[in-house]
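Dear Dr. K.,

Following up on our conversation at the group meeting, I've run the structure prediction for GOLD domain-containing protein from Parnassius mnemosyne. I'm pasting the input sequence below exactly as I used it, so you can double-check it against your construct before we proceed with anything downstream. Let me know if the numbering doesn't match what you have in your notebook.
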Amino acid sequence: MAQRTWHMFFVIILIFTVLSLVGDVLSTSPGPWYENLPAVTMDYKVHIDPGKEDCYFQYVQPGATFYASYQVLKGGDGMCGFAVRHPNGKIVHPYEWRQSAEYADQTSSGGYYAVCIDNQFSRFAGKLVNLYLSVIRYDMWEKYAKEVEELDMNIKNFTHSIQFVERNINDILQYQYHSRARESRDYNLLQDNNAYVLRWSFIQILAIAATGTLQVYFVRKLFEVKDNSSKTRI
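The predicted structure tokens came back this morning:
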């Protein structure tokens, strides 16, 4: 019994140790999982209920470029409000009632931006809105370019690879063009054959009908009995 109690006590201590380690890792994490990516783009289609406002938050690294835009796809008068709030709490894009709008911050100080879409002026019609958000870190692209140079992936080799891919794409496009041309030719040939068969079939039907009519006519003429009244001689 004592051995089982000590075993349970050891398991509880182990669980608390693992949880504490996970908490330390999460607390030391500087930001979201996509923080170290050179570029993040998100494209949403969201439905805004009548008389409502929805806000979306996007984390932006210091020095990165933040871009947000929206476009009303359908619903009501086709317009809604749009506003962007800076991480410091300042409204950097004032509220506007439009069909589409955009905002860009070329050098962000970092933090969570709030992008709000407002449909409060529309009391009866919901709106379907396309929302696009992107965060680009050009310094990370430069870092990747240096790594590529270190791997001897120079501009000449890269250009050669692009030309090889482009040549293959052109070959595929030419093959698709010829396939479409053959398909169009075969389709026209089928239509011509169909018209030819229908035309000659109709002519043959007319010929058979006319021949049958003539045969019936002449057969009836053979069995026709003439009613000639004999004249009485005096």
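Two things stood out to me. Residues 144 and 150 are 10 Å apart (CA to CA). Confidence is low (pLDDT under 50) at residues 25-29.

Best regards,
J.T.
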